[in-house]
Every structure is written in C-alpha cells, then in structure tokens.
Specification:
By secondary structure, the chain is mainly α. The protein contains seven helices and no strands.
Length: about 110
C-alpha cells in the first residue's frame, strides 16, 4: 500500500523509475517490519508452527526460539530480499542509502 501514492504522483509509474527506487522503498519496508518485530511474517509463520525437522539444518538452527531471543533477531534480519529478488550488490547500495539517511537525519549534507 505504501507504493500507491508514488504511482499516483508518478515517481514510480514506470519500470525504470520503480527499479531506480526499489532499494530505497525496500529499506523503509524492512525498517517497518523490524520495528514491529516481524508481526507481518509471524501472522502466518509462527515459530511454533514450523517443523524444524523438515527444514535444512542451517534454517532450523536459525529458527530456534532460544537463538532469536538471545540475539534479538527478527525475521527480516535474515529474510531481506527473499520475497522480492534484489539485484547483485544490493547490500552495498543499501549501506550507502543508510549512511545518507543517517546523515540527513543529523542535518549533515548527503555525500
């Protein structure tokens, strides 16, 4: 739903415009999900409903409740880019956006 106003005002009304803003938009969604402790995920994917024995070993280790509680992790910490494929090198772009966003919040000039 957050994208609708952007489609209406024309900031992402073409594929090229959308792709240019995709990571920026994703970053805000990830922040919202992180802020809600991944309630959007947990509506369907509650840990108690997962069969850890049917998951790959690495996934079942990551999904243990104890590990998540101790580390403070939430679903989005591991699941960025799972629902929507991101381009190669997205992490570097994401980090640059985060730095620019923090600089703007602190009143500094964007680099």
């Amino acid at each position: 739903m957050h994208e609708v106003p952007h489609w209406i005002i024309g900031s992402i009304d073409t594929r090229d415009k959308y792709e240019a803003q995709r990571l920026y938009l994703a970053k805000h969604v990830w922040e919202d999900i992180k802020g809600s402790d991944s309630d959007e995920c947990r509506d369907c994917h509650e840990l108690g409903h997962m069969d850890l024995n049917r998951q790959k070993l690495s996934a079942s280790r990551k999904h243990t409740l104890k590990r998540q509680i101790e580390s403070g992790e939430t679903c989005i910490d591991c699941q960025q880019g799972v629902a929507h494929t991101l381009s190669e090198g997205w992490q570097d772009q994401y980090d640059a956006i985060a730095i620019a966003h923090e600089a703007t919040k602190e009143g500094e000039t964007k680099i």
